[in-house]
Amino acid sequence: MKQKDQALIFEMSKPGRRGGSLPENDVPDVNVEELLPADYVRQEEPELPEVSELQLVRHYTALSKRNFGIDSGFYPLGSCTMKYNPKINEVIARLPGLAHLHPYQPEPQVQGALRLMHELQASLAEITGMQEVTLQSAAGAHGEWTGLMMIRALHEANGETQRTKVIVPDSAHGTNPASAGVAGFDPVTVKTDERGLVDMDHLKEVTGEDTAALMLTNPNTLGLFEEDIVEMAEIIHNAGGKLYYDGANSNAIMGKATPGDMGFDVVHMNLHKTFTGPHGGGGPGSGPVGVKEELVPYLPRPLLVKDGEQYKWDYHRPDAIGRIKPFYGNFGINMRAYAYMRSMGSQGLHQVSENAVLNANYLRKRLEPYYDIPYPQYCKHEFVLSAKRQKKLGVRALDIAKRLLDYGFHPPTIYFPLNVEECMMVEPTETETKETLDDFADAMIAIAKEAEEDPDLVLEAPHETVISRLDETKAARQPVLRYQEQ
Amino acid sequence: MGQTHRYLPMTEDDRREMLETVGASDVAELFSDIPESVRPDAALNVGEALSEHALVDYFQSLAAENVSMKDHPTFLGAGVYDHHIPATVDAVISRSEFYTAYTPYQPEVSQGELQAIFEFQSMISTLTGMEMANSSMYDGHTALAEGALMAATQKRMKKKTILISETVHPEARDVVQTFVNGPGLTLETVPAQAGATDVKALKKSLTDDVAGVLVQYPNFYGTIEDLAALREAADEVDALLIVKSNPLALGMLTPPGEFGADVVVGDTQPFGIMGQYGGPHCGYFATKKAFMRKVPGRLVGETVDEEGQRGYVLTLQAREQHIRRDKATSNICSNQALNALASSVAMSAFGKHGVKDMAVRNMQKAHYAKQSLQAAGFSLVYDGAYFNEFVIDVGQAAERVNEALFSEGIIGGLDLGRFAGENDRHMLVCVTERRSKEEIDRLVDALQKHAG
């Protein structure tokens, strides 16, 4: 059922209302304007809303009802690992002894926080097979850039400044080439072959003296394990390059394969994906970076170390790439991830990957008769399907995605990876029941039938959401990026 | 596995039925494509699974090893502030429709998040006096670094020098240095004079190669920079003026936009975000419309649906990594959406006049503390106008003084020796609206006792 447009909070504003209070003023009142140079006293107050506390709460409650989260329903968004975000993690993250710490409190006052971080680093090193981990990067893309800056520093230290190229598969996450660019490298694309894996001949062709690194997600974004990984590592290493592991898909391999053993030299993990730091509608995330021994000197400043029984920050790191973030990373997300890891334990994490992979294979198999599955082999935690068949009927992946909304599901990732036509990338995760997977499969099958029998029903979808399809062209051509009083 | 884990719903029957559908004999078969040599020799070693009860016990034991700002008055600031957080903030960000959602890729079921971000962009724009703002950045320091990169790309990489004032937060200067190393820009530091940017020195550093001038307002030492003079200087070589600002201070101070700043960045932590040992907080990035297509990160725009109803979408995505790949304006993907929401709620709760009142309250408390400290014989290191932070000379190592203060239950100000050895007697004192007169008096007494 359609709801009326939700007014902007500015439109509810009425002069004289307030939605919060301030601590009492118990110091002598002074006219602070006299403490400032005249030109520096703000003359016009900002146009912030004036609403009562109840208005404020109702407004945001109304907005929340116009939003879909994991708790609302199945969210099989590929490469995003939309698994259950445990409630207890939210309780833990708000414990006053963890939430209300200032980053400049002296180390003896924050030993518990440092211990937590040190233990998390050790666990991530264990899972990834790396020597040392930094928790400082704020998200996956930030981790990628951090790792590439370290690889660059290593090559420069070895006098190999000609290594300017970073090889990235055509199926890679968009952040990979973007991070390479921001780190000062030129990305080079390596093709995917008919198996859905890196084309080995092409890899050999593009690898050379100018290769700084190969960035790889394994399993890749098609959900397939790059089974030639050992040979790939040899090719890159023999050419003097390094291997970078994009950990966005690590939910598939915990306890099953270790990036360090695969030959990777640098790894980032998306704690907001595999380790349930909630996504928050687009962050905050956390993207810790692990490295093998050779790269340890280049880890960003400061590095957390254990000195006897005391934890402390080591700032004296002459070869470090520098500082990448204020303070020590997204501690609030890191502690949620650690709480999740401890709640699962070694066995549990292993089980997570097994169940995630079985769920994905099950859904793939159930959809196979109705949609094109470009790569028929076993997938890992996610798989791609193509709406090629439906496109012939005039129904595209986008339309199927919109129709899924009517069935109460969040759609899969669409039109990614770029090398699959009318691509839909499905990642069910391990926290979903078989019943939910079946409901989703039934909906997908029903839509495939609708595409044949009543395509307009799909083309005009969604029918059940608070708003219909939005005019994105208008948004981009005549940008309105803020509220302005009429 | 023995007992079924509370987060894993697959039963033995499910597993059997699903394997049958898949056509695999067992789960191991699904992993048969993983070469033997990359399989772990032993099981992972991250400990046994903990029950919810044991988990909370464990984290409580970690929390107990820390000293919470909630139990001790703190005079630490320098980018992270102990402000009042309205209860409404946690009520809103605890709604799981917000915190368990991904980036709003499907606008029809993400109107709540999209509208909330649109409102955040609007609030930041008005507060900074800028035409537009993005949906958030990781934090204030990386936002400043992205500003530096944007200045260079705006000048088509023909100008490759960035000037940064010594009065910008030292960690922010470090972050900017690391970021500009990527595209190979040169970062030069402009010295300070009496706790503010030395405008004469800045003018001497200006060359045609300067793409951007980076300053902080109020600056790291709490001093209010002369933005008018800095704008004029940057104009001499057609460089962008990029200002990092504590958004709360802008409730009282003339916004950088009115001085003609090209980019205003900062961190909205003062509005509704807990300290959390330094993160996650929430960077903001505000600029002029002229730079709209160069802006890093997500932007939400207003549009209409097929029936003409108003709605919101992610827009101008051609700038972004998932479309433009290596030609993107930035590699940022996840940002700080939930914290932007927290700050929006706090800004709305305080409201148009409340934000100013809060800024005024900070100035009054800081002023009282400054006068009391001066009366007690402590000298102010810099004498310029300030907001809620200022630097005093404690006459001996500030680190030792802080230890003594803590023995009296007070978390003292920031020891500036941490960043520059020669400043080891300088303490950056921050006083927010949460510090009572009694707490300020206690600080003054304790300082007099231990450092007087």
Q: Can you describe what's shown?
A:
Chain A: Belongs to the GcvP family. C-terminal subunit subfamily. Chain A: The modification N6-(pyridoxal phosphate)lysine is found at residue 273. Chain A: Keywords: Oxidoreductase, Pyridoxal phosphate. Chain A: InterPro entries: GcvPB, GDC-P_C, GDC-P_N, GDC_P, PyrdxlP-dep_Trfase, PyrdxlP-dep_Trfase_major, PyrdxlP-dep_Trfase_small. Chain A: This is Probable glycine dehydrogenase (decarboxylating) subunit 2. By secondary structure, chain A is α/β, with parallel strands linked by helices. Chain A folds into 3 domains: 9-65, no CATH class; 89-342, Type I PLP-dependent aspartate aminotransferase-like (Major domain) (Aspartate Aminotransferase, domain 2); 346-472, Aspartate Aminotransferase, domain 1, CATH 3.90.1150.10. Helix content of chain A is 35%, strand content 11%. Chain A has helices at residues 53-65, 87-92, 96-99, 111-128, 140-157, 175-182, 200-206, 229-238, 259-262, 331-367, 388-391, 397-406, 434-453, 455-459, 472-477; strands at residues 132-134, 165-169, 186-190, 211-216, 242-247, 266-269, 289-291, 303-307, 310-314, 383-386, 413-414, 423-426. In chain A, the strands form 3 sheets. Chain A has a 7-stranded mixed β-sheet, sandwiched between helices. In chain A, α4 (111-128) runs parallel beside α10 (331-367), α5 packs across α6 (175-182) and α10 packs across α13. The longest helix of chain A has 37 residues, at 331-367. The mean pLDDT of chain A is 96. Chain B is an alpha/beta fold and 452 residues long. Chain B folds into 3 domains: 12-53, no CATH class; 87-345, Aspartate Aminotransferase, domain 2 (3-Layer(aba) Sandwich), CATH 3.40.640; 354-451, Alpha-Beta Complex (Aspartate Aminotransferase, domain 1), CATH 3.90.1150. Chain B is 37% helix and 14% strand. Chain B is built from 14 helices and 15 strands. Chain B has helices at residues 12-22, 27-30, 52-64, 87-93, 96-99, 111-128, 140-154, 170-181, 199-205, 227-236, 321-324, 337-375, 398-407, 437-451, and strands at 132-133, 161-165, 186-190, 192-193, 196-197, 210-216, 240-244, 263-267, 283-287, 300-304, 310-314, 379-380, 389-393, 414-415, 426-430. In chain B, the strands form 4 sheets. A 7-stranded mixed β-sheet of chain B has the order 1-9-8-7-6-2-3, with helices on both faces. A 4-stranded antiparallel β-sheet of chain B has the order 12-13-15-14, with helices on one face. In chain B, α4 packs antiparallel against α12, α6 packs parallel to α12 and α12 packs across α14 (437-451). The longest helix of chain B is centred in the last third of the chain and has 39 residues, at 337-375. Chains A and B meet through α1, α2, α3, α4 and α5 of A and α1, α2, α3, α4 and α5 of B.
